[in-house]
Design goal:
The chain is α/β, with parallel strands linked by helices and 193 residues long. It has one domain: C8orf32 fold. Helices cover 28% and strands 18% of the residues. It contains six helices and eight strands; from the N terminus they run βααβααβαβββββα. Strands 6-5-4-7 form a four-stranded antiparallel β-sheet. A two-stranded parallel sheet has the order 1-8. Strand 4 and strand 5 form a beta hairpin. Helix 1 packs across helix 5, helix 2 runs antiparallel to helix 5 and helix 4 crosses helix 5. The two termini are 13 Å apart.
Length: 193
C-alpha cells in the first residue's frame, strides 16, 4: 500500500497539539530516557497495557494522560507513541484501519507511521497477546492485524498529523471503567483518507 502523508512538510509531523502533547514534561523526560524510536515503540507496546487486555478501561487518549494511566486503547497508545517520537525529533503520524469487531460490526483501529531513512513506515504498538505479534520493523510491516478485504476491512493510506476531529470527539465521550468501543466510529470520517 502506498502511504499518503497529508503534506510533504515534515514539520507538521513534529508539532505538538492538544492530543499529541509532546511538550508535556513527563513525555519529554521519558523520550530522552528512551533515546531512540525503537525503544519508544517497545515502551508503548510492552509497558502501556491495552485496555481490553488489562480488563480495565482508563478512557485516556491524550498522550500525557496515557503515560500517566499506563493503560489505553489503540488510539491512546498511538497518540503516546507519536508524542514520544516527536519529542525525539522523529516525524510521526497517525494511521487507521477499519477492522471487524467481535460483534460482527467494524471498529476503527489506530496505529502510527514514522519517517526514518527518508521514507514512511507503519508501526503498531497496540500490544501483543495471544494471536497478536506486532513488531518494530521498518522494512516489512509487522502490524497487530493484517486487513482482510474479503470481510470489508481496509487500510486507510493517509498519514494524519492530528487525529480527525470527529474521532477526538468520540474519544472524549469514553467513560473510565466502561468496557467496549461503542463510542468509536466504524470508519474514518468522509474527509479522512
Amino acid at each position: 500500500m502506498m502511504l499518503q502523508p497529508e503534506t510533504d512538510d515534515l514539520t507538521g509531523y513534529l508539532a505538538a497539539d492538544e492530543v499529541v502533547d509532546h511538550r508535556h514534561p513527563g513525555i519529554r523526560a521519558l523520550a530522552a530516557e528512551l533515546a531512540g524510536p525503537e525503544a519508544a515503540f517497545h515502551f508503548v507496546r510492552d509497558r502501556v497495557r491495552h485496555s481490553a487486555d488489562a480488563g480495565t478501561y482508563s478512557a485516556a487518549y491524550r498522550a500525557s494522560e496515557v503515560l500517566a494511566a499506563r493503560n489505553a486503547i489503540c488510539h491512546g497508545k498511538s497518540h503516546l507513541l507519536a508524542a514520544l517520537l516527536r519529542a525525539q525529533g522523529v516525524p510521526a503520524g497517525l494511521c487507521y484501519q477499519r477492522l471487524e469487531d467481535d460483534a460482527g460490526g467494524f471498529v476503527l483501529h489506530a496505529l502510527n507511521a514514522v519517517h526514518l531513512d527518508g521514507r514512511w513506515a507503519r508501526l503498531d504498538a497496540r500490544g501483543n497477546r495471544e494471536g497478536v505479534d506486532a513488531r518494530y520493523d521498518l522494512e516489512r510491516e509487522r502490524l497487530a492485524w493484517p486487513v482482510r478485504p474479503e470481510l470489508g476491512e481496509r487500510d486507510y493510506p493517509g498519514i494524519h498529523r492530528t487525529p480527525p476531529a470527529p474521532l477526538v470527539q468520540a474519544l472524549a465521550r469514553a467513560v473510565p471503567g466502561r468496557a467496549g468501543y461503542g463510542y468509536l466510529p466504524s470508519e474514518l470520517p468522509p474527509t479522512g483518507y
